[in-house]
Each structure stands twice: as structure tokens, then as C-alpha cells.
Amino acid sequence: MLFNIHTMDWDPELCKYFDIPMEILPKVRSSSEIYGLMKSGPLTGVPISGCLGDQSAALVGQMCFKDGQAKNTYGTGCFLLKNVGTKPVMSDHGLLTTVAYKLGRDKPACYALEGSVAIAGAVVRWLKDNLGIIQTSTELEKLAADVGTSYGCYFVPAFSGLYAPYWEPSARGIICGLTQFTNRSHLAFAALEAVCFQTREILDAMNQDSGIHLSQLQVDGGMTSNRLLMQLQADILCIPVVKPSMPETTALGAAMAAGAAEGVSVWSLNPEDLTEVTSEKFEPQINPEESELRYARWKKAVQRAMNWETTEPSGGMDTSIFSSVPLGFYILGSMFMLIGAKYIAGQCESE
């Protein structure tokens, strides 16, 4: 929180504010250079030459080196990064601007827009552990595939609020659009759709911020083994979803940065030197009109989930005693009867 992504160094103003001497902070280095050598063990003398955070490493592992390329990692949550090039793009739509990588001491830093979904794979665990409608994660795919539709059911898993692009902590999870025909298979399908709809919301925000519309989405992470989820994602985004044959793209990205470092140079990360990775592509199979209709209903469901956790009285109703019409009439009637009784009593005394 002391780093300035524009100067690529520690920020003097922030360090002064938090009373942290800048001389005690480590030297900022790039993502791909030799930092030192192993001193002991079987790897003695081997250089340590790659350093990337989890999501940045996945971006490199997916070879998203061009402006406008993006990847989504499907784990407990979802983490979507989009490469925006060497100039940082500040978001107006609820996203974070971050450093993607700097592949060499003399190379320029590349930036990314980042959006996160709190509940992705975690929704599978919730259906398993809390509701008990499935026993394993693979069962979820089978249940959803059996019906092939949510039958108008929409699931917003805002268990602890909504992350990007809303950043709304008061939201809570809801399941709406239920009918007497809705069953656990429809709920399973709605849960998978929820992951895809949340990804679409972030991707829409990225397209608006960067001005570059994504032509395909690179994907990785544990949930990508769910083929129905990947097909749903392509249908809801209306663009192809590409899953590489190498699933551990985070580890691959760190290795790529280490091997390309000056002084190691066991391979090159120049675009012209990169070979195409074998992958599986999921093409959209529904028409855009149907996709937009389902997405619009999802947005409607999200609005229902907003401002659920609030300290205000339920419905903002008047909590005074006169808010109850029958009780109000009773009290007012009693007051008039008392006044009338006193008036009559006074008249009688005067006679």
C-alpha cells in the first residue's frame, strides 16, 4: 500500500503519512531478473530470477501480452485481469488498476484492469455443505446438464456483499424466479450461470474502461474442468472461451518470467518467438438476443439483492403507535369519548 504504480517506486507522500522511513524499504525490482543465487542444497548456484503475484503470473502464463487480452481464473472466487498496455487506465466502472508485470530491468511496466468475484467455486461448496443437494462437485455439472436451463430461476450468491463492479457490502444472496416446478437441477444450473453472469459484469466494465472489446476470453483454474460452465460462459459473453491444455498457468507464468530473465535466457517472451499453445475453444451456441435477455434478468435479480443488510426499520415504515389504523381509531375514539363524557358531566353540574 506504499507503492506508486505510476512512478514504479515507493511513494514519498504515503511513506511520510504513515511515518515509514523509505530507507528501510527493499529495492523495487522487475518481475524478470536475477535477484540472487541459491546458497545451499541441490539447487546451489541456481539463480532466482522470476517474481510474479498469483494473478499476474496467470496472465503471463496465458500469454496475454497484447493490449486488450484478458484471462479469468475460476477458483473459490473469480479473478479477471485485462492487459491495458504500458499506460495505466484508471477505472470509472468499479475496477482496480494494477501493475501486471515488468519483464526485465530495462523493459516498460505493463498494466492491467482487475475485477474480482467473491463467490465462484465457493457456491459449489455451499450447495454441497449447506443445502446438501449434491455430494461432489462433479455431480453439479450432471444435475445442471440434465435440465439444460434454470427455468427462470436466478441465483445471486452475494453471501457477504458484492465485489466488482458494485462494491456493495449491504447486498445479500437471493434466489428468485422460483415456481412450483423448480427443482435442485434448476438451482444447480442457476448456480453455474451466476458465475458466468458475474464474469460478464466485470468484462463489460473492462470493455467500457479500456475501449478495447475482448475478442475471446482465456480461462484457467479448477472450475474450468466443468465443460458445461465453460459453454455457459461462452454463451453469456457471446465470445469464444479458450481453455489451454496446460491448466497450471500460474506456475507456468512464474517459470516463463524466470527463464526469460537476462543472464538466464533459456527462452524468449517476444511475441514473434512464442509458439501457439494447444487449447480447447468453446464457441457461443445461443443467439445474442437470448443471451441479452438472460443477462437483463440477472441484473434485475442483482438489484433485488442490493441494500438488504440495513440498520433502518423494515421497509422504512412509521413505527409510531398511530401507524396501525385500527389502533389509531381506537385511541382517537377513546379520547373523544373522554372529552365528551367530561363535557356532559359539566353540563349536568351546571344545571
UniProtKB/TrEMBL annotation:
GO terms for cellular component: mitochondrion. GO terms for biological process: glycerol catabolic process; glycerol-3-phosphate biosynthetic process; triglyceride metabolic process. It is an enzyme of class 2 (transferase). Residues 71-261 form the Carbohydrate kinase FGGY C-terminal domain. Pfam families: FGGY_C, FGGY_N. It comes from the Eukaryota. Its EC number is 2.7.1.30. This is glycerol kinase. The gene is gk.
